[in-house]
Please model this.
Amino acid sequence: MSTYPMISIELATEIALSHASVLDHETVSLQEARGRVLAANVLAPDNHPAFRASVKDGYAVIASDGAGEFEVVGESRAGEKDPITVTSGKVAYITTGAPVPEGADSVIQIEDVIRLPAPEASSTDGGAVPLPAASQVRILKAAKQGQDIRAIGSDIAEGQVVLAAGETVGTAEVGLLATVGAVSLSVYRRPRVAVLSTGDEVVEPSVQHLAPGQVRDSNRAMLLAAAAQAGAVVTDLGVARDQMGQLEGCLDRAIAQGMDILITSGGVSMGDRDLLKPLLERRGVIHFGRVLMKPGKPLTFATLEVGDSGRKMLVFGLPGNPVSSCVCFQLVVVPCLHKMSGWKQSGLRRVHARLASSLRLDPERPEYHRATLVWCSKNPAAPTSSSDPSSADASPALPAAAGETGFGFELWALSTGNQISSRLLSARSANAILEIPRAAGTLAAGSVVSALLIDDLQMMPIQGLVPATLGF
Model:
């Protein structure tokens, strides 16, 4: 009988997060900043644009001159600053992004201008001499004052906070930071995470011929990849055999290498060779050792004080079954990684989805069911035509012409199949974990359930054609 009380996953996550602290700051270059969380505000050192800039190719004019024929006194091009002044009755050719000449207060796009043939002047011998080309133009439309001119600081004002502390740097943010010359940035440090597998039966994935009782180590590779995807700097500690000395040696290595988190898989159940919990009890504090969830009941969390500074290393003892290990990592470890990395909201994002097929409920434990979310207007699991409209998996009725108008589209959850905790195929292609309540009976197809996102929906499978906005 376990001495650890059974607690809910909500409480387990809350406890783990209470011991996860936001990490210290470090400085990175702009090229290294994508995906990082800013630890300080970024201010604009100057106005953008720093001068009145033309929005289009055309002619810089004085709006009050209206339409008519005008002399071209010069040109202003992007990257150049020529001393041109526009006065009444005069215009200047201008390119997109170029400084607007002094005196001009509007820009007429080139489509509203006709270049006139060059007039001829008499030479000293009586012959005709053409003037420079396009020295005169006809403006077809009167301009409004300020038309097609970006004012100084209209995009970004000097001293403006362009990105605030706590914001994550994406690709657009990299461009914004480059715009304001922010090439060195203060960001929160990425968590250092070590991953360790345990068990006498576990061998390297490279082993081609398994001896009786051996299994290839899928957990370590999976957890290293998952931690890296969540933004951690990962360290592979290999496999520890079911011997206290080996296990403790790996724990000491994690401490010596300055790890913020140690993730282990296996060795947390109640067998005589499940040694992790006794080790953690002796070296640190176990905060929980059983969680009311399916899969993942043996999930264990402990903290160890390391060094003289009072710094803590978090230890997550995940179950040895691959699916249990994967689900526990997503539900409890990922929010801690987010918090330590500086995220303002560290939890997994929750959405609602309809079940594409019925699910059998468990009266003993709530289930975290792996699924693939699909955006479509009808049940993607339903047959194209059904002779039995009362079938349990039939799609609920939708408004007429839903597929034509775009209304009626919603998220549907396709189960990844048999959910036994050793079957890693049930995690393949999963982009969400469904929260299925503890109850007797069956949850019918079409029921709305909550789903925790564990992957980017940009890779979500497509079922049919999602129409564009009406009139687009």
